[in-house]
Amino acid sequence: MNNIEKKITELRETLNYHSYKYYVEDKPEISDFEYDKLYRELEDLEKQRPDLVTPDSPTQRVGDKPLEGFDKVEHAVQMQSLQDVFNEEELFAFDKRVGEAINTDVEYVVEKKIDGLSVSLIYENGRFIRGATRGDGLVGEDVTQNLKTIKAIPMIIKDALPLLEVRGEVYISKSDFIKINEDQEALEQPLFANPRNAAAGSLRQLDPKIAAARKLNIFIFNIQRIEGKSFTKHSETLEYLKYLGFKVSPDYKVLRNIEAVMNRIHEIGEERGELPFEIDGAVVKVNSLNQRDILGSTTKTPRWAVAYKYPAEKKQTVIKDIWVNVGRTGVLTPNAVLEPVRLAGTTVSRATLHNMDYIKDKDIRIGDTVVVQKAGDIIPEVLEVVFEKRTGSEKEFLMPEQCPECGSQVVREEGEAAYRCTGIECPAQLFRSIVHFVSRDAMNIDGLGPAIIEVLLDKGFIKEIADLYTLQERKDELVKIERMGKKSVENLLNSIEKSKLNNIDRLIFGFGIRHIGLRAAQLLSENFESMDALKEASFDDILRIPEFGEKMAQSVVTFFNQEQTRDTIEKLRKSGVNLTSAGKKQLKDNRFEGLTFVLTGTLPTYSRSEAGEIIESFGGKTSGSVSKKTDYVLAGEEAGSKLDKARQLGVKVIDEEEFSRMIS
């Protein structure tokens, strides 16, 4: 074995070891930065020697290309569901049925019922070869590529068994769920209702890179099939699975009678609010595998196990006040300040009130006695008012007219539940505002990804958009930031300097004005000679622009009337950012007149904005969504749902090669 082969082997073993310590044992021994450094070293070596890359390498956990769909998988062993029980009486009745059938002592295993998505994993000769969702129990979907992104799933197990099929529950931790929804909010995407929905949606992503970003995890709780090994008890199988390298059901207990089982169920119920993951019950299983065979199963459920379901805990408390939180998208969310109350294992003193419509529908007032519960055992919410406890001293709540974070005007558009801050300098929105401002279709500043922006915000280097153009003054400090380096900083500062020359359509789009996309920004740039002319334009002036409606026009006027907007424009002017328009773009010819294109995926040569500009230079239009009115979908690599929609509607799909012929 030569040096590079030896080094690759050592790095793989080291990375697999640290993955196990972190994802399975929850006992990391090195920092994320140190792990990433080792990972990049392995990546570099494998690029030098692609012949040495193996399917079980840590670098191969995420596939290169999205799937077009999931293949169906027929389960060799049916993945049954469990019969639910909801109280002690039903649990004791289960124990009685088991005792009558077995007619001897019965030992039970009690496990936490993780609230996630059930999957099966198949290993041949010790290597992971396929994973599938439960589906209807008989047929599921092949989600192998996405399961490979879960670091707690070993690609190779310790014993090279001819065949092993295990069953587990894929889940997302409570903390990661909150972070995912924060990211969804920042991207103005729909929020997930609970961690289970987030896990299910992530595991069924056609792009494994999206699944990888969601930090899925798994607990293994059963052996479905095995060759080369035999057991007499379920608890023995769990210990063996742990030995093989799996993350098994946490804190399971082996108990000798149903009274002890009930006590354990109560214990789990008390601690569930403090668990890092969500559970929706406790599972009670007969431990003896021989006794399980005697008990058998129905067509849907085993007779040797039940799931004890906990009722949603509700408590009464008093709303002391209502305060407003401003989210990353500028949406104002009212929250109740409560008299502290113990709920689902934790003390709750805050609860979401969602929006003003929710408050009005339930007639919630400051001083009311209300019923609260934790939605999905995570987010406290007010369910209802206890009207019989009203005294008449309660106060109605009104949404503020000015943003509590920055003082800018708050608007609520017709037909929407949300109230929004309109301030471009609002600190609550700053992260999302800058992410959008530097994006490729806006000011196109390379080297400023979300992670770097977070660091610059944390260090106080940027407190508003205009501060990006003063970063040159902090060059020496930027170089000292972890993972930056002299060359990266130089490239970043050069990109910032280059962005000053952009036409104002990019700047207008970069401001993130509500309802103003790329096309609308270009039209504003073509119809107003400068940013100064645009900020003084009236509602009627903007409404005259073709393709503009009243909602778009009002949004533009509201934005440019804000003192914060004018302040930002002046700061950009002082930094040398271009504020004049290049005027209307001249058409090369009208070959695309009346045609609408939708762009999706990554093109080999053009960026999407460049391709869009070419289409418009020939008289065509671009749209962000596919409909029956779409004429062409220009698709590159990693094209997603837009490509699927085009095929469903029979819209013509072209690649860059065909597009090049059309414009030549």
Structure summary:
By secondary structure, the chain is α+β, with helices and mostly antiparallel strands.
Name a few traits of the molecule.
single chain, 664 residues, alpha+beta, Helix Hairpins, D-amino Acid Aminotransferase, Chain A, domain 1, OB fold (Dihydrolipoamide Acetyltransferase, E2P), 5 domains, 7-stranded antiparallel beta sheet, 5-stranded mixed beta sheet, globular
In the CATH hierarchy, what is the superfamily of the largest domain? DNA ligase/mRNA capping enzyme
Share in β-strands: 15-25%
What is the highest CATH level, the class of the largest domain? Alpha Beta
Q: What is the CA-based Rg, rounded?
A: 29 Å
- The CATH topology of the largest domain is D-amino Acid Aminotransferase, Chain A, domain 1
Estimate the mean pLDDT confidence: 89
Name the shape in a single word: globular
User: What is the domain tally?
Assistant: 5
What structural category characterises the helix and strand content?
Answer: alpha+beta
- Low confidence ranges: none
Distance between the termini: 53 Å
Number of strands: 22
For the biggest sheet, the summary is:
7 strands, antiparallel
- Percent in helix: 25-40%
Tally of individual helices:
24
Q: Which CATH-level-2 architecture of the largest domain?
A: 2-Layer Sandwich
Overview of this protein structure:
This protein has 5 domains: about 5-60, Helix hairpin bin (Helix Hairpins), CATH 1.10.287; about 75-310, D-amino Acid Aminotransferase, Chain A, domain 1 (2-Layer Sandwich); about 315-390, Beta Barrel (OB fold (Dihydrolipoamide Acetyltransferase, E2P)); about 425-575, DNA polymerase, domain 1 (Orthogonal Bundle), CATH 1.10.150.20; about 595-664, Rossmann fold (3-Layer(aba) Sandwich), CATH 3.40.50.10190. The strands form 5 sheets. Strands 12, 13, 14, 15, 16, 17 and 18 form a 7-stranded antiparallel beta sheet that branches. The chain has a 5-stranded mixed beta sheet with strand order 2-11-10-3-9. The chain is built from 24 helices and 22 strands. Strand 15 and strand 16 form a beta hairpin. The model has no long low-confidence stretch (mean pLDDT about 90). With about 675 residues, it is of the alpha+beta class. The longest helix is centred in the N-terminal third of the chain and has 22 residues, at about 5-25. The protein is about 35% helix and about 20% strand. About 35% of the residues are buried.
